[in-house]
Amino acid sequence: MATKGFNAYKMAQEQFDRIAEKLELEEATRDLLRTPMREHHFSIPVKMDDGKVKVFRGFRVQHNDARGPCKGGIRFHPQETADTVKALSMWMTWKCAVANIPLGGGKGGVICDPHHLSQREQEALCRGWIRQVAKDIGHVQDVPAPDVMTNAQHMLWMLDEFENIKGGKYPGVITGKPVGMGGSLGRTEATGYGCVFVLREALNDLGMNPEETTASVQGFGNVAQYAIELYTQLGGKVVCVSCWDQKASKAIAFKKSDGVSMTELRSITDRFGEIDQKKAKEMGYEMIPGEDWIKQDVDILIPAALENSITGETVSQIKPSVKIIVEGANGPTTPEADRELEKKGIMVIPDFLANAGGVTCSYFEQVQCNMNYFWTKEEVLGKLDDKMTAAFYDVLDLSKKRKVSMRDAAYMISISRVAEACRLRGWV
Ligand code: NAD
User: Could you tell me the distance, in angstroms and rounded to a whole number, from the CA of residue 78 to the centre of ligand 1?
Assistant: First the structure.
């Protein structure tokens, strides 16, 4: 999506250039990795409910597939741009590489607003999108998934259209399908739990006992709720959570010094992750301004809502007690704030490592579909724990060895892995 004056693709390329310099990558590899390998831009004509045909603009960008088929979601958004899709496809390449799953990076999108489309029109759009890319995607080429404003139903329509075209069953071509229709158990928990698998190891490295720690969380949606669930199971105490108040159009935070209860809060939260303030008050929660989630006297901060929340302005509000920040959300910390956090000596577990549990579980979904045999939830989450823990130590070890931040170490690992795959294939 486009945000005024901000170009995600430019930012992704700058991030890449900085690390390429540190790694002393040669020119051809830089040229190859700083732009997507393939871009598909296409028109999707859809017969609308009023009988008229409307033409939508769609994209699928395949940034790099040296390590395996491309992987990445499809966004439906009115402000979608080709540049945003390109940036996201690049970030997917780095995320899959740091998680060490055999996949490359891709991303797709359609400029549209599903709020203004009927179910029939959405189905036609999904089927139209697939018809344009059917020859360029597949379980051995590129595997799409849901993203902003797309869901399991959209994925199922897309799968059905793909199978109609190909004349066979190809459940591994797309992930994020409903459980029972090729979806994986554990996908709902995967991103939040993944955050806590790496947090557990970070605490271990810093010699901290989870049972003696406290945390404050921004957001109360999918990622936040499952992160809180598992962190609480480890004995940690979440003393503050925040969410978006749709009516008042501002954020609000909920405090309980002896620890929030997931059972209580879930029972009063809607499907958009908004907590009912009246009921929370009756349950003894103190309500404070949403921005204050960051000012809490805790050991751990978990931004799990949206980008741009730890900034040059807000970073100074972080209390000296904070030792670890786990970026559940994508892009919550600005580069300026990042420099401050480094000075303060706070360990930041960067987004594309911390929230890689989602794509790792999508990879598991694809694997299960390809063999047409589905694992139990325990098996999925156990494998996820192994992957996330291994990825965390790869990054931690390099960060200590090269005396660089966890973010730089994660970038160095992912970019080197992809560069090496390109080199071994003889591309550069
Ligand atoms: P979600 O829509 O389920 O929840 C978002 C939550 O953030 C809601 O509780 C909402 O009220 C809250 N929120 C919105 N604006 C806020 C604000 N200004 N202050 C405080 N709270 C606010 O979303 P999600 O799936 O949990 O995703 C959260 C973040 O994690 C996003 O950045 C997303 O891109 C990233 N992410 C999600 C996944 C996944 O598998 N769900 C995977 C990787 C990354």
Answer: 19
